Records
---
Amino acid sequence: MKDTVTEDTITEAVRQQYETYSYPPPIEDGEKFLKKWGPLTCDPRFAGIQLWPEGRPRQELRILCAGCGSSQAALIALNNPDCTVLGIDLSETSLAHSNRLRDRHGLANLELRQMSLLDVGELDRSFDLIICTGVLHHLPDPDAGLKALADVLDPSGSMAIMLYGKAGRAGVYLVQDILRRLGAGRNAEGVRIARELLKVVPSKHYLISPTGKLPHDLAHDAGIVDMLLHPQDRAYAVPEIMEFVEAAGLVFFGWKDNALYCADRYLGGEMLERVLALPAAEQWSVIDNLTALNDRHDFFVRKPHSARFLTRFDTDDFLSYVPHIRAGVRLAGDVNSLVLARPAPQGEVAIPISRAEALMLEQVDGKKRISEILSHAIFTGSEPEQRTSFARTVCERMWRSGHVLFSRSGP
Ligand SMILES: C[S@@+](CC[C@H](N)C(=O)[O-])C[C@H]1O[C@@H](n2cnc3c(N)ncnc32)[C@H](O)[C@@H]1O
């Protein structure tokens, strides 16, 4: 039986924390923010192909930002004026910051409510897109949270989730443990103690990045409390994410950026061959454990009904996909050693490609299907089977690295 008294106590501690230390640090001007940083990565205008490879269900999306914090719902509403956005959060302080952005930018499409995402079913509404980043891992029962969201997701809807990553946050939990022993609370004195401790963290500690830096969130009080003094926080390894999604009756629909789980990026020779022989989720798990760099996992989930739109290459259906080169990708190297490269979290992703592969990618325009690209004169000299096998290998590699995304042309 669940201990609801304990769960309520934890939820209250979480609420109080975000009343005092609103997160992320509030912003004054959403337009300036978007101009400087670009759209949030869960913004449907940015992540549309990944959310709905088959095409957006409707132009006027109904969006829920569950645990919207101080600005997320307002930024999404600002950047998507044709959509309606509901932001819900436990913290009145964070909602007040969001409300200021609503007033400043005249966001008639933004509605804000103080409530737990666990109660969202009571609204008797459904949503095309649910954004829930950095929230579920703070619930006493994250599974109940995901199920509550799944219940209000439209059958053709999509959800963008961010959960903490276990391997990349190992150092965070060591420091949290020290601060707990030192009696540091979620107040000014606790933050001061944390700052003193950070001064003596050795440069080889797991908290420090390979480039020798402390996580950037530790530059401000709310970030210190959120990362090091939180009353409720758990992190996930890749298999735990798969179980979490499945337990809610949902389908894992892909990472925001495959590069963070891409075997080709980190391995070669025998190791790469061995890892690529594993099912996809195991490959991701190996890379997550190997790099130990993922302190967060950003991914998409959908209802089982949408599983037919999963990107896959094990049948010839992929020939009807429309490839799209991700922003920032460029051809580099020289004629004898070409690479397709782009900046990504954890440094540049550079995947070697052959001249023939480069020629195929040159034909990618975000409109032509793979079958149409293969009918180009440069490929018609080879047998159809050879062409299909060639395209499968290229597309699969480019998809694994996240350099290429795929939409479906037909219904
Ligand atoms: C780390 S912040 C993330 C904010 C925002 N999603 C973002 O990514 O910028 C977590 C937010 O979740 C909210 N929260 C925590 N538990 C919640 C719950 N059960 N229902 C609704 N909001 C919750 C907190 O109040 C806080 O504002």
---
Amino acid sequence: MRLANKTAIITGGASGIGRSAAMIFAKEGAKVAIADLNIEGGRETVKLIEEQGGTAFFYEINVSDSRQMKNLISATVDCYGQLDILFNNAGIGHPDVKSVDLDEEEWDRIIDINLKGVFLGIKHAVPQLKKSGGGAFINTSSLLGLKGQKYLAAYNASKAGVVLLTKNAALEYGRDNIRVNAIAPGVIDTQIIEGWKNDEKKWPIISRANALGRIGTPEEVANAVLFLASDEASFITGATLSVDGGGLTF
Ligand SMILES: NC(=O)c1ccc[n+]([C@@H]2O[C@H](COP(=O)([O-])OP(=O)(O)OC[C@H]3O[C@@H](n4cnc5c(N)ncnc54)[C@H](O)[C@@H]3O)[C@@H](O)[C@H]2O)c1
């Protein structure tokens, strides 16, 4: 098993990419903590993991709250004795809006969850990973952290920030045997894209705007996350791995 004897936290583990990653991590031997705002979805992920013979617990958290993030790390270590992997994945999108019409409150909310949430995960988990003798962070950026898209200023900026935050932490903690990588998913079939699906004009374009001509599944992203979390990626740090069906080829 590729994550035998490892302990992992997955933020945003109540659905979509986070749930898939949690299930595959558990299948590969990791004990997992599912951290999310969504209590019902989080508990459902735990149930699915237990049904497949794995070990998991749910922890309710808003990732943009420093105290809650710190408590999540402590609770995981209290429960499992150590921490090896943090998948900083929780995130939100926002409806299309021109920058001049984007409310400052909405800007702050997106940056707080998508970017500050990742920073807080790194800030509070590094001391614990050092105690474990090293470990791995995987941070969820986006295709839209690598290329611009009209009317998504806050999302673009938050996800681009994750790319450089990842490089920064890789530099700061590499000598502590801590690897820090990001993934940049393209259009993936989760609830975050439900709004786009209802747009009869845009969806046929968005859903095929990559080399493979289709959207991806959460499992396809989770497989990349598993690789980056595992020892198979032992010489990879500071990287952002595109999992986008070739979305950046456009
Ligand atoms: N689906 C895509 O097309 C796509 C593409 C690129 C990047 N992403 C990114 O992937 C990540 C996962 O999204 P997904 O597609 O699985 O969507 P999703 O909506 O299914 O999952 C996001 C999860 O994050 C949780 N969450 C939101 N805000 C939170 C907060 N403040 N604290 C704790 N949990 C919170 C939600 O409850 C949800 O369970 C996000 O960071 C998203 O931006 C998704």
